Amino acid sequence: MNSRVIQYDRHSMDQLEWPDTEYGRYAREYLTPLLESGTEYYISNVHTTVKVLTVDGIPVPVTINDSNYDNSYVCSPYTHYVSYAREELALLNNQMLEGALSMMLMAMGWLLRQARFNRVIQVNNWLLSTNLYPALSAGQLTEVLEYLRQAYPGYTIMYRSLSMETSGDLIASLRGVGCKLVPSRQIYLLQQNSSGSKARWLVKRDRSLLAKHGYTEVSPDEITPADIPRIVELYRLLYIDKYSVYNPQFTEAFIAMAMERRTLQIYGLRREGRLDAVLGFYERDGAMTAPLFGYDTGLPQSVGLYRMLSAVLIGLAGSSGLLLHESSGVGQFKRNRGAVGAIEYSAVYDRDTAWLNRCGWSFLELLLRRIGMPLIQKLKL
């Protein structure tokens, strides 16, 4: 067993010496509660086992699953590639194509269940829509892969949230040791200094809506515990009710933890004392992303809450000089404001798994490369 990599769980975490660095302190604040109380307490539809591996003393979370096909996509590849994908077929606005692809996904789902597709370990999994990677070398993360191969024979090992633009060296290293590169989604990346004048004008116009509609931007110091139920509601209205029940369903305990431990920087839009929009971001190694994002969808669209909240997020990234990872969705809106589309991948090591599972991953990789991602790029989703 590789002596550079050490595994910790809820029973041994008191032996873990967290590095006295910004990342080490963040990892301790975020991961300790998950180890102590379990994932469902903080994210109600995430059922997984969280452990922490240290490589050369640097902590990296991993999640371990065996089945549970109704899990959130953040720890279930079946949910991501089958259940969630079927929901998003409506975006195609083509009934014949939707029907054909739905039948294909149903058949593929049956095959993947037989292949024990969810018997998977995900590396650097923070149970969020986007997993930003710490400043680890590609060699260190492949050391983790080798450790997991020996410790968990028969499991698929995955690295989510990889793109050529943000993780090119890691992708090259993982492909070099035999990982498949399976397309996942189209994401949008915004580097402030590359935005054109039209994009900057649009963001400025969106920002001006705050004053027009009487909203005030509130900072993390101005968000109070009394806001927690409303924050959960605003996120649910957008990401669960409007988009998908397979998105991570944050509980009040998760928001309370994020506020107390500053694992997310939470900002909001308040009018007459009422919080109507909220975002929460974290940053790592020169990039930031906002896994917490929501607004009151019951208010008229003409108010422009999404536009205002996006302008606040873009401003926060710009003031810190960070690359803004805007996740997926609302592609044309994000492009108009300077973001650039990129393909996100999961690196998948399945060489130690059963033949049927390897066939499932190979078929999925081929299907997404030949049909799925070209269609998404064509439609600019």
What does this 3D model show about the protein?
Helix content is 43%, strand content 22%. The chain is of the alpha+beta class and 381 residues long. The protein has a twelve-stranded mixed β-sheet. A hairpin with a 2-residue loop joins strand 9 and strand 10. The chain is globular. The model has no long low-confidence stretch (mean pLDDT 93).
Tag the structure with descriptive keywords.
twelve-stranded mixed sheet; 381 residues; 11 helices; globular; alpha+beta
Give the SSE map.
Layout: E1 5-8, H1 22-37, E2 49-55, E3 58-65, H2 77-87, H3 95-114, E4 120-123, H4 138-151, E5 156-163, H5 164-176, E6 180-190, H6 197-212, E7 216-218, H7 228-243, H8 252-261, E8 265-271, E9 274-284, E10 287-295, H9 305-320, E11 323-325, H10 331-336, E12 340-349, H11 355-379
Radius of gyration, CA atoms, in whole angstroms: 21 Å
How many β-strand stretches? 12
Q: How would you classify the helix and strand content by structural class?
A: alpha+beta
Tally the helices: what do you get? 11
Question: Mind describing the biggest β-sheet?
Answer: 12 strands, mixed
How is the largest sheet built, in terms of strand order?
A: 1-2-3-4-5-12-6-11-10-9-8-7
Question: What are the segments in which pLDDT stays under 50 over at least 5 consecutive residues?
Answer: none
Distance between the termini: 44 Å
Which strand-content bin applies to the residues? 15-25%
Please outline what is shown here.
The chain has about 375 residues and is α+β, with helices and mostly antiparallel strands. It is about 45% helix and about 20% strand.
